[in-house]
Specification:
Distance between the termini: 32 Å
Strand content: 5-15%
Number of strands: 14
Largest sheet: 7 strands, mixed
Radius of gyration: 21 Å
Number of helices: 13
Structural class: alpha/beta
Strand order of the largest sheet: 2-9-8-7-6-3-5
Order of helices and strands: HEHEHEEHEHEHEHEHEHHHEHEEEEH
């Protein structure tokens, strides 16, 4: 498998190569902190000057594992998790890959996932030597029968809730499905909770941390990037049974020795501070998107969770449209090429941006669509690269 530059990165590179132009960059689903609540001054590197001169423990800095346990008690309503169930990783994707590589070493060669799935997760499955299969899961009790038909060999079930990109959230009834899966010796559930602060439904179901502690067949991965708006720290974490942590710690040591100690201490400060303003910023972005849709007569129900909208633009060739919008309207978009399988006509649109930029971006997107319809009808659409 030869890695290739994504369509998203290609468009970003084009925008960055022309710095004098006014770009609307809408590619990220990492939420932005409101300017009035920026946490940048919460901690400085002077607060932990010795961190660069020694390795942190491979399992994670004790202050961070303690902060993560406290966080899971408060956010996930856990009663059972303690530091022995937690491993600090270099971001959420590192956590996913680390767990998949460990499962592959234990004989798991098949992985199933809902559709669509972030291409990085799919690539991690393939890189671990697994055959990846997409299923049309619904997040309801009906999924159990569909999944059980796949268990002809040791199988990984990848679950991501709130889901990237659709915004589907964990329902209370689905915990029973997860419990049944986790109890099987031939199944391991990898539960990706990197958006679990962003469940806006009326009956929020917490991430099933205690199930991961109790059952050997469930591992939870999470990240500071999305939940605390700090992708630059590259800090994530795993919650699972002690026996799995005992095996994953030496694997992390072999692969990376330890996660950056300074970043871990920054993450402690971020978690201690909390993310209320960040979550409220996403809520405001969602409200602005809904308000704009109502004024244009295009209102659709918002997803229950997540930090993005999964928009069907009704365009046959979404990649050509994204190139067109880049060149003519200075919009940098994330298309369904960032997911597996590619879903016709869709883009991922961020909700974790200021309301003013949200309104400007949606207006520009609708103008680009109108422009596209005219030029496509006249056969004048060309790919990026003409300049």
């Amino acid at each position: 498998m030869t890695p290739q530059l994504s369509a998203l990165q290609r468009r970003l590179n084009i925008a960055e190569s022309r710095p004098g132009e006014d770009w609307l960059v809408l590619v990220e689903n990492v939420p932005e902190w409101p300017r009035t609540a920026s946490p940048q001054a919460t901690t400085t590197h002077a607060d932990h000057p010795g961190a660069p001169f020694g390795y942190a423990p491979s399992q994670g800095h004790p202050r961070l594992t303690e902060a993560l346990v406290k966080r899971e008690h408060e956010v996930s309503a856990s009663r059972l998790v303690d530091e022995s169930h937690v491993l600090v990783t270099a971001g959420g994707m590192h956590a996913v890959g680390l767990v998949l590589r460990d499962l592959a070493a234990r004989g798991f060669r098949k992985a199933v996932h809902t559709t669509p799935v972030f291409c990085g997760v799919y690539d991690s499955m393939k890189a671990a030597g697994m055959r990846a299969k997409a299923l049309r899961l619904t997040g309801t009790a009906q999924d159990l029968a569909l999944l059980e038909g796949e268990f002809t060999e040791p199988t990984v079930v990848y679950v991501n809730l709130p889901h990237n990109p659709t915004g589907e959230v964990l329902r209370h009834e689905y915990v029973d499905v997860l419990r049944a899966l986790a109890a099987r010796p031939d199944v391991h559930v990898v539960y990706d909770a990197v958006y679990d602060s962003f469940d806006f439904g009326p009956d929020r179901c917490p991430t099933p941390v205690d199930l991961a502690v109790e059952e050997r067949g469930l591992t939870i991965v999470n990240s500071v990037s999305k939940n605390y708006g700090r992708p630059g720290d590259r800090v994530g974490w795993i919650v699972t049974a002690q026996e799995h942590i005992a095996r994953l710690v030496p694997r992390l040591e072999w692969e990376a020795v330890a996660v950056n100690g300074r970043a871990q201490l920054d993450a402690v400060a971020a978690i201690d501070r909390g993310n209320t303003e960040l979550v409220e910023g996403v809520r405001a972005g969602r409200a602005a998107a809904l308000d704009h849709a109502r004024t244009t007569g295009r209102a659709q129900p918002l997803p229950a969770g997540g930090t993005q909208l999964w928009l069907d633009l009704g365009v046959a060739d979404i990649e050509r449209f994204a190139d067109f919008a880049l060149e003519r309207h200075h919009l940098v978009l994330t298309t369904s090429a960032n997911y597996v399988p590619v879903v016709r006509g869709h883009i991922r649109f961020p909700t974790g941006i200021p309301a003013e930029r949200m309104r400007r971006a949606l207006t520009a997107l609708h103008e680009a669509l109108d422009d596209w319809c005219t030029h496509d009808a006249e056969g004048k659409v060309a790919h990026v690269g003409s300049r």
